[in-house]
Amino acid sequence: MPRTKKFRRFRLLVILLVLLVVGGTAGGGWYGVHVVRESFPQTTGTLQLPGLKGQVTVVRDDKGIPQIYASSSADLFMAQGYVEAQDRFWQMDVDRHITSGTLASMFGAGKNDANVQSDAFIQTMNWRGVAQKEYDTQLSKATQAYLQAFSAGVNDWLKQHPGGAGASLEYAMLGAAHSGYTPAPWTPVDSISWLKAMAWDLSGNMQQEVDRSLLSQSLSASQIAQLYPAYPSGNGTIVDTGTVSDPGSNDAAYHPAAADSGGASADTTASTTQGTAQTGSTVQGLTSAATQLAANIDSVPSLLGQPGQGIGSNSWVISGKYTTSGKPLLADDPHLTPGLPSVWEQMGLHCTTLSAACPFDVTGFSFPGMPGVVIGHNQSISWGFTNLGADVEDLYLEQVTGPDSYAYDNGTKQFTSRTVTIAVAGGPSQTITVRSTADGMPIISDHDELEQQVGQNAPVTEAAPPRGNGYAIALKWTALTPGKTMDSVFELDQATNFDQFRAAAAHFDVPGQNMVYADSSGASGNIGYTATGQIPIRANGDNGTYPEPGWSSAYAWKGTIPTAALPYVENPAAGYIVAANQPVVNSSYPYLITDDWDYGIRAKQITGLIQSKIADNGKISPDDMSSMQMDDTSVMAKTLVPYLLNVKLSGGSYYTDAQNLLKGWNDDQDSGSAAAAYYNAVWSNLLHLAFDEKFPASVRATTDCVTQPVTADVPVDGLNGPTKLQSVCGLRTPDQAQPDGGDQWMTVVANLLNQPNSSWWSYSYNNGQQVTGRDNLLAEAMKDARQQLTSLMGKNMATWSWGRIHTLTLNEPTIGGADSSSLLSGLEHKLLDRGPYQLDGGSSAVDATGWNASAGYQVDWAPSMRMVVDLSNFDGSEWINIGGASGQPYDAHYNDQTQLWADGDLLTWAYTKSAVQAAGVDTLTLTPAG
Questions:
Q1: In terms of DSSP bridges, do strands 66-70 and 345-351 run parallel, antiparallel, or are they unpaired?
Q2: Omega of the bond prior to 536 within 30 degrees of 0, cis?
Q3: Residue 158 confidence (pLDDT) above 70
């Protein structure tokens, strides 16, 4: 398609902009810098804000992190809204367009209509509509008031930047592409809608449901079970000495401490209500439906990380009896998709005098566009989150009997319908019809023509209704029921003891979280844990691992797990709690939380580090906690490397020299390690050989020549070397259900290593010759790894290092992302992106710099922030963020924490007013107008 004159003029403008911004200190360069700096926040002096009742002080440290002091809650949250808009309004504006399903109205249709597809999918689920109901019917009056005050502060800032004028560099770029865009006023519902994005990205096992359906095309139920193995019994659970209580019940089943605590055993069979047909034949015809649904899932822009793909976290808390200070220590590092600006905003919110009217003295990490603090500490307690991973989504096959009806039990029910118009910047709007079942489940297959083929060929039991033109797919998801999560945020910020903490956590409806706790009261403080979330109760024998027959009421949810029955523990005898996405409870727990737990590799490693430290000297320091966060041991290497070293390689020293890198390797994945690079390349190629060709064609990754970021072999002045995109044959283009190399696949392969003649170890050469046996496949994987790394880093292994290929590039995901059709033809990356950074760590390491083994070695998810809270001295606590406080690309604080984060360093976290003032470098005073 030929470029238009308008596009050529726009590209010329962008080139000029690049030259002005990065072109130096000459006159033009100075002018460009002046234009960009005009959007930077005012951080000193005095500003008037309409609506303030009293004076507010904003103190920023040398990293630009704001601490806000106000005499009333209304003024405190109004100031937070203003300050967040100063730093991050572009990000906030984009995020609300994603969560409301209006991204195309801002950026246009996108490449291959990606924005339209995303908008249609999100509006089908109606995230914003659910958020509106939450605000109208579920939230307390106090929470509503806080949200209103926050919105007023954002809008005060927006009035100073009408139409986005002078707001950020990105608005200038957007205006050149789609003139006429004007940001709308901020509303409380914009803030609440973010919770739906958080719930989506941290949701349960929808992707696994789709993957199992795709794999069922050519694999048997027993083969699929091998790919989703039972949880290793030795990896433990979070609650093994704790309590699960249910008022009104004295049933011993509610007390899993009485049962074996060796670890939960995940049932890998499918739902049994339909018998064996559900595991095999029922899902075999879901090919086109599952493939397209996976594409729709991928169409939703990832704000935190792709659902089910490496989304985890580490958190642990140590009792004061095992710490150097005698008070608890708490560590937390959520693993999310990194980008710029950071997903987190560091913030302090302080009432100048604590009272019932102004009860906040809290600091920590919040989400831009959301008031309050999500993770952190107040004057009494500290808390951290990891993802619970509860299965809170089910896909239902619906037999459509007419334009407005579907089969249910022995009759039919009526769909409800609504019409949605999707506005498209620079193009015509599009209209879709959204249908929902009688109980409110949206039909997520209506907005795309291919998805209308859902279940078209799916074999079902004899009791199933006629297929007709195929089954539709409906979504049941707890996040589509209005909840009280926003109440929970403010309640956590005010809690002062474990009972108040649990009461606040009980309102954290979605997404379900593991929450760890510490306080400083008593001789050695207290530690605790609680699970949160609305988690469905399914029919007996139904574990939610495959799509359900929607025509039968037998598969309907039976309510949710009672809040009082959710697992918790306070001051366990062990003296520590580790929550790293492993199973919460053992098999005695009376409710199903999920059958798709993380496999506990990180949790077991963290537990071992804690136990080793306690056994060594009995005391753990804050520095020990941060050192544990940076542990980059490959646990899988401890299992696999002995097998690799036992294989006899042919082909001479070219291959054996690489194999010998593993001799004496300590299993640490340091960025400078050649052995770590080679091991991970072997791991990637092992997965390719063992699994790819056995998967159905519709989910098989293609082996092709693709680009892999590689940094120069010689760093300059201590910084990462320049990057290049190396074309390498042998890397794979990923698709759904492909082995990503994470904990699931480590568990699969660990099980298979004891079965040297398993059919999984067979593979075919390009000439069609079939090779069988574990050692033959391992030998081929080592040879392929040698060749691949030679292509990436050269023949001389002395120049190899894990960090050269295991890099993180921080991308600004909107202007230059696929969803915006790369508005600036790639030039935006020079302006907005940062990196690459050479990183330690790897998938399922405690330092979880995750990479997808089907796509290359670059980092896809990582610890998005790290914090260590010292309950003996809050001013001695430490934190770090990816990126920085600012969302302005050329602000000094846009990316001033990333290198520190990559090096494993933490920043001092001032809390008390005297410490904040001592650390402050800028002070802004906000006063009432008039």
A1: parallel
A2: no
A3: yes
